[in-house]
Amino acid sequence: MQIAPSVSNPNRPRRLLRFLLGACALVGVSLSQAQAGGVLTVAMTAGDIPVTTGTPDQGFEGFRFVGWSLYDALVGWDLSKADKPSDIIPGLATSWSIDPNDHKRWIFKLRQGVKFHDGCAFNADDVVWNYARMTDNKSPQFFAQQFALNRGYMTNVANIEKVDDFTVAITTKFVESLFPYTMSYIPMVSRCRAEELKYDWNAFAMHPSGTGPYRFDRMIPRERLELVPNKDYWNPARVPHQDRMILIPMPEAATRVAALLSGQVNFVEAPPPDTIARLKSAGMQIVTNVYPHNWPFTLNFVKGPFTDLRVRQAANYALNRADFVELLGGLATEEYAQVPPFMPYYGKPVRYEFNAKKATELLKAAKCYPCEITLAISTSGSGQMQPLPMNDLLKSQMEEAGFKVNFKVMDWNAMLEIARGGVDKFPDIDGYNGSRALVDPVIAVIKPVAKAYWSPAGANWGHFYNADIEKLVADIFTEFDDAKRMALLTKLHEAENEQAIMIFVVHDVNPRALSPHVKGFVQSQHWFQDMTPISVE
Amino acid sequence: MLALILRRLFYAAPIALGVSIVCFSLVYLAPGDPLQAVMPADVTPDMVEMIKHEYGFDKPIPVQYALWLWRALQGDFGLSIGSRRPVIVDVLGSLQNTLLLTSFAVPIAFVIGYSLGAIAGCFPGRWLDRIVTGFAVMGVSVPNYWLGIVMVIAFAVELSWLPATGMGPRGSDAFSIFSLDDLRYLVMPVFTLSMVPVGIIARSTRAAVAEIRGQDFVVTLRAKGLSEIAVIRHVLKNALPQVLAVMGLQFGYLMGGSILIETVFTWPGSGFLLAKAIINRDIPVLQGAILLLSLVFVATNLVVDLLQSAIDPRIRRA
Amino acid sequence: MAHTLAVSTPTDVDPDVLPATIVRGYWQSVAYRLRHDPVTLFFGAVILLIILAAIFAPLVAPYDPYKESVIARLKPFGWRGHLIGTDELGRDLLTRIIYGGRISLFMGLAPVLIATIVGSALGILAGFGGRRINTIIMRTMDVFYAFPSVLLAVAISGAMGGGITNGMIALSMVFTPALCRISETATAQVRSLDFIEAARASGAGTFTVLRHHVLGNVLGPIFIYASSLVSVSILLASGLSFLGLGVKPPEPDWGLMLSTLRQSIYVNPWICAMPGAAIFITSICFNLVSDGIRAAMDVRM
């Protein structure tokens, strides 16, 4: 694509020279970038770059690409295997144990020799400081945004105190045998950097510092975030193999696919099922794996038709889940319960197999016919799959059974705000379509039903309450024997299905599309993924 | 001349004020509580109080407007609900990117449209005229964002000649017009953006040229023995002011109306920002972006007006 | 529109040769010109077809626009009786386009109609009402005129939350200022014409003057301008739908269909072209017809 210089132009030789020099520079730059390792360019489903000030927004996709790149938590996840479910492993804490004299007190031993990106050393003071940052609005480091984003995880944290330089004691509000999972969602940010920037969190967002495997390089708000490897990462096995990871928000599925096909990106989240054939024929790698995910509607138990069990059951009977799987080109599995069948506490839950007539009968019995409901749905988002066509299908199936469905369509982050705000703030919403990460038993089966997690303190959005289930939860939290606890969890799962606590639709299989040049990616059975072993040739 | 400028400025000020009133009232057009419209949903109660006080929601509406205007004049449009960054930073940054698109699209549209219109105007009624007019009509009738989608499929996906989205491989702040690699990202957005202006400019030029050709002085020129080419040159020169005015208006239009194209090409301009603000119901960004874009439009009209008066004294109106 | 000048027109004389009388014979000459303009006639017929198809959609369309079929998604032209294939939920595309015409045409015509009524009323009021009323009305219109149309439509519709009603309100507000200006200018011009003075001198009241003389001469330019706005309105409305500010799914609407079908481009590119083509064709037709109307009516402008 040469621009021919004009013949009669006396500046021609000079212009030509400048042009040639420019071209050489371009070639030089691109050559120098083509080292081993390469540049990984990721197209995320998020509508904006997840915030870099600690706990990210934009759901678990925010953690996947930004949170766990820049930061670590006390507890980590093993993301190295594709054939086994993922579980927690030591992170910034090397071990944790419960205080035998006080079951509400957990002792975490911290890893030594860890440094933040700015060089400061990590120790117990940082943990206590971070806790104040998220909870204590009298402290100078308090940041309201992080308070809001973390509130759901802090439900059961009463206090964090330093025992010695490398030991902290975390006190919970109620006995919770599964507590360590909670600490796996809370990133530790650098106190030194925050103090250096005089607690200006907007500035911190552009100069973040954590302990994670990636360092911040540059960010253009709303457009891209560029990260480079942290060569001094405390886990040498997880120093990134790429030279650079670029994260680009692309909430429109069509745009993501176009970007992959034209070579602008080489790693794409959630390609639409319709495009898989085309992607494959263009040589792209399509990776899928089971993972603890579901795509349900979380319901309102305070007000509206779903307060009646029969209406909830009717909604579940109304769905022909096979159609959804077909719509998604086979990139999903039918969902009849809170967790997918491969989870250890699945048990034998009641199955609401497709039966439109039964649904109609139930609605009539509940005197809600036609049953008008308002559902909040998003246009895209982490784990949301293809929300618009799927909800079109949902609406037509539910309306056949006798519902009248009104949708409130919004951006993913806006829906997360509804989720965090809780049913008290949004009483007229009968249900919202938020994908759920079922990564640990607390999130999967306990938080949605226990009173302690009533929103906005936790994830029990609709204020569900049932005395029997409450008792089960209490038993689980005080049961420290793994086998007995598993049996109780299974019972809980089955009870939740009897109560039809959500509208169950499908489980995702986490499809991703990668360019053929991307090597080394292991897709774990988890929402979080390890981006560090990837190289681009 | 100075008096003219001052008079026009004086005239434009109330318009700008009116524009600001319309922007301010957008918050009240939004369904629901105006306070909800400027806050994220998961905000804490004491933050609610703080925002209420700062925005003056507990005061009468004219006072609120005055507060809002006062802050706006200082460049403070509040914080974006989604990103919690200052609105002015986001809006000005994105405005630059739209300016880039428009700066390319308008001159290109002018050159093409003017040439086509001149040809059509010189041969009115003949088949050349019909073709050009037909082309111009198509230009203003096509939904240009649809054309953009089709071009993305054809040139980016199928042929891989041009990139599908975005503003340069290194992001918008590294974009350089001296880099061929970056310029490739401009090609399709600029082309689709210029479709409508080409049509409008072609039509205006055709009308202007046809009208001027029929005027007396042209007959006189011919009678004096000037060659046809020289006559055409005179005609085109005289048609220029009117068409320049149209071009200037198109510039303002494109600055304000680029939202659809920018959405299709994910071009991080002010239109794209606006589209996202609408989806996210980010009212502060909506207000800030619309106010600034409209003021750009008002300013553009003003400049065009003044330039026209300067170039062609006959147009100077009272 | 009363014709008060009693000039008789011999029927065997070519109307183009007649002196340009202001009122009588004008509409005849307009009709004559239109009749002999093949382009306008042809595209006018196409518009009529489109409108009729939209109105009688249930009779004309082969399928149900809401009936989905998961197995029949994104099928090509002619597949099992679907003339132009199916959309991403298995609905017949031709049916959706025909039904979609209802909303798209409605959003093209209704705002222009509303803006014409409101705009001309305001303009005539401004033209006749004296300096103060004129200033208030025209300066208010100037403020709205100061917004680029896409921006204003998006802003109002976006702030109000989208939907057909809000879209209609938004688009009407976009078009009213221009129509108000046209009618004010035309009114001001007509006011000063001699025959108005004559009518007034002969004792006709303001209202009579308005009805008999002004309306006839002002409505002409208004009608011409309004007809040129219809295609713009269709484009703007489809743009609003494309951005998600129009009807909500599963209602068929051309702009919305363009947006939802974007993903399906990789399976069947022509699918996405169809709603866009529908918008394009409709818009061109209105454009050409309005051009023809202007050419026919614009003799003395």
Structure commentary:
The complex is a heterotrimer of chains A (537), B (318) and C (301). In chain A, 31% of the residues lie in helices and 21% in strands. With 537 residues, chain A is an alpha+beta fold. In chain A, helix 9 runs antiparallel to helix 11 and helix 15 packs antiparallel against helix 16. The longest helix of chain A is centred in the first third of the chain and has 22 residues. The longest helix of chain B has 36 residues. The model of chain B has no long low-confidence stretch (mean pLDDT 81). In chain C, 68% of the residues lie in helices and 0% in strands. In chain C, helix 6 crosses helix 7, helix 7 runs antiparallel to helix 9 and helix 10 packs antiparallel against helix 11. The two termini of chain C are 19 Å apart. Chains B and C meet through helix 1, helix 6, helix 7, helix 10 and helix 11 of B and helix 5, helix 6, helix 9 and helix 11 of C.
List the helices and strands and how they pair.
The complex is a heterotrimer of chains A (537), B (318) and C (301).
Chain A: H1 12-33, E1 39-44, H2 59-70, E2 75-77, E3 88-90, E4 93-99, E5 102-110, H3 124-135, H4 144-150, E6 157-164, E7 167-172, H5 191-196, H6 201-206, E8 214-220, E9 224-229, E10 244-249, H7 253-261, E11 267-269, H8 276-281, E12 285-287, E13 293-299, H9 309-317, H10 321-327, E14 332-334, H11 356-365, E15 371-378, H12 387-401, E16 403-410, H13 412-421, E17 431-432, E18 436-437, H14 441-446, H15 467-478, H16 482-498, E19 502-508, E20 512-514, E21 518-519, E22 535-536
Parallel strand pairs in A: 1-10, 1-11, 15-16, 15-17
Antiparallel strand pairs in A: 2-3, 4-5, 5-7, 6-7, 8-9, 9-10, 11-20, 12-20, 13-17, 13-18, 13-19, 14-19, 21-22
Helix pairs in contact in A: 9-11, 15-16
Chain B: H1 2-29, H2 34-37, H3 45-55, H4 61-73, H5 87-122, H6 127-141, H7 144-158, H8 180-213, H9 216-223, H10 228-257, H11 259-265, H12 270-279, H13 283-311
Helix pairs in contact in B: 1-13, 5-6, 5-8, 5-10, 5-12, 5-13, 6-8, 7-8, 7-11, 8-10, 10-13, 11-12, 12-13
Chain C: H1 26-35, H2 38-55, H3 57-60, H4 93-128, H5 131-145, H6 149-160, H7 164-191, H8 194-201, H9 206-242, H10 254-261, H11 269-297
